[in-house]
């Protein structure tokens, strides 16, 4: 079985779900190749694994030597970008031939492949995996119909949550061709360890890019109103809001208990997670429509024994059930978030069974080994019959 993955950058730490899915296919002796906009070998030691350099199939840049000019062409071509980029995509369509199934991660890559298929340059079944921004922003602009070529040419759409599935169906996708396929983690690689904060400093942590949709501002504001005063908060990650969030912590009078660590090596992140008690990710819909799928960071925290606190946002309620596997509050509701954090601070004993239930939830429904087996069965059926039934 020959599978070609179409991605933006390969390999990259920000898309470990892609790497894990590829690893799952390799473990099942499938022949994997990759077509990408940018090859990133050697740029991140956390994903600099020999497996990605020695795939059974080739790893190639979609545009070849023109890739370095992609951002400039997009800027210069303006409203003609769609036509120009599609012309170059079609000229390089041979890189997507001689495979049994094409798997495009993110809607825009599925759209690129679908436009080539419409011109009858390739014929392998197309599976498009929708993750978050690729659904949220078009929804915000009432433009999900933009994906109609994907719906018409593609064999299967795999949104990562039920919220996105309904959005795609509402935009014209055939319900029988849209199925939820969660991203997951390998819980067997994460040690579960409950850590009570009874009589100790309560340690909160966030690991995320500091963008609007991660809601870090609301975490800071809720912590500022926390009656329980013996706490610290570590924020790992960089992003455009870093300096603004530092100023917010100062303005709230909590800068002495909040540490912005910036991006950190993966081993250090894992250790800091092991030392923390509560994982904060109060996600919100960005003003531009940017949405979460179901954040992998929440799964990892729950697998490790942390109490996860998030929001009723996108697919997150498919992972967290309030007061059963974690805690949820409405988006941007600082008072509700502060109330949940105060309850957690005062009830470490009652939180322990919640942490254990969270681990079991991840093992049952977000286990990458199980999900990769399911995914392999899907693509195998497609490659053999052209149908998922």
TrEMBL record:
Looking at the record's lineage, which domain of life comes first? Bacteria
Tell me which residues make up the Glycosyl transferase family domain.
Answer: 203-359
Task: Note the coiled coil stretches, chain numbering.
Answer: none
As one GO molecular function, the record gives: glycosyltransferase activity
Domain Glycosyltransferase subfamily 4-like N-terminal: start-end pairs = 15-183
Q: Which SUPFAM superfamilies match?
A: UDP-Glycosyltransferase/glycogen phosphorylase (SSF53756)
Keyword terms: Glycosyltransferase, Transferase
Per the record, the similarity remark reads: Belongs to the glycosyltransferase group 1 family. Glycosyltransferase 4 subfamily.
Name the record gives this protein = Putative glycosyl transferase
């Amino acid at each position: 079985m020959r599978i070609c993955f179409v991605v933006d950058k390969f390999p990259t730490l920000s898309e470990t779900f892609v790497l894990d899915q590829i690893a799952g296919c390799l473990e099942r002796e499938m022949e994997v190749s990759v077509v990408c906009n940018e090859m990133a070998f050697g740029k991140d030691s956390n994903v600099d694994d020999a497996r990605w350099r020695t795939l059974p199939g080739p790893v190639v840049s979609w545009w070849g030597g023109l890739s370095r000019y992609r951002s400039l062409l997009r800027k210069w071509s303006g409203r003609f970008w769609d036509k120009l980029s599609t012309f170059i995509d079609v000229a390089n369509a041979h890189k997507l031939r001689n495979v049994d199934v094409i798997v495009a991660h993110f809607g825009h890559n599925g759209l690129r492949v679908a436009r080539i298929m419409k011109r009858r340059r390739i014929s392998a079944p197309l599976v498009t995996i929708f993750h978050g921004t690729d659904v949220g922003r078009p929804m915000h602009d009432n433009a999900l119909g933009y994906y109609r070529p994907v719906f018409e040419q593609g064999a299967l759409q795999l949104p990562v949550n039920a919220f996105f599935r309904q959005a795609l169906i509402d935009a014209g996708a055939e319900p029988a061709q849209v199925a939820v396929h969660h991203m997951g983690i390998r819980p067997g690689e994460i040690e579960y360890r409950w850590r009570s904060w009874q009589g100790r400093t309560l340690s909160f942590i966030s690991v995320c890019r500091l963008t609007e949709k991660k809601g870090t501002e609301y975490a800071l504001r809720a912590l500022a109103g926390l009656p329980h005063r013996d706490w610290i908060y570590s924020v790992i990650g960089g992003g455009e809001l870093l300096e603004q969030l530092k100023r917010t912590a100062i303005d709230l009078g909590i800068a002495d208990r909040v540490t912005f660590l910036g991006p950190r090596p993966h081993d250090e992140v894992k250790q800091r997670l092991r030392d923390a008690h509560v994982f904060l990710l109060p996600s919100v819909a960005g003003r531009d429509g940017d949405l979460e799928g179901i954040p992998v960071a929440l799964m990892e925290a729950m697998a490790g024994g942390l109490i996860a606190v998030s929001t009723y946002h996108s697919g997150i309620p498919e992972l967290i059930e309030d007061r059963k596997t974690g805690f949820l509050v409405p988006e941007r509701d600082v008072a509700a978030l502060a109330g949940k954090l105060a309850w957690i601070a005062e009830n470490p004993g009652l939180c322990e069974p919640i942490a254990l239930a969270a681990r079991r939830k991840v093992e049952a429904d977000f286990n990458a080994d199980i999900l990769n087996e399911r995914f392999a069965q899907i693509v195998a059926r497609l490659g053999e019959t052209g149908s998922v039934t």
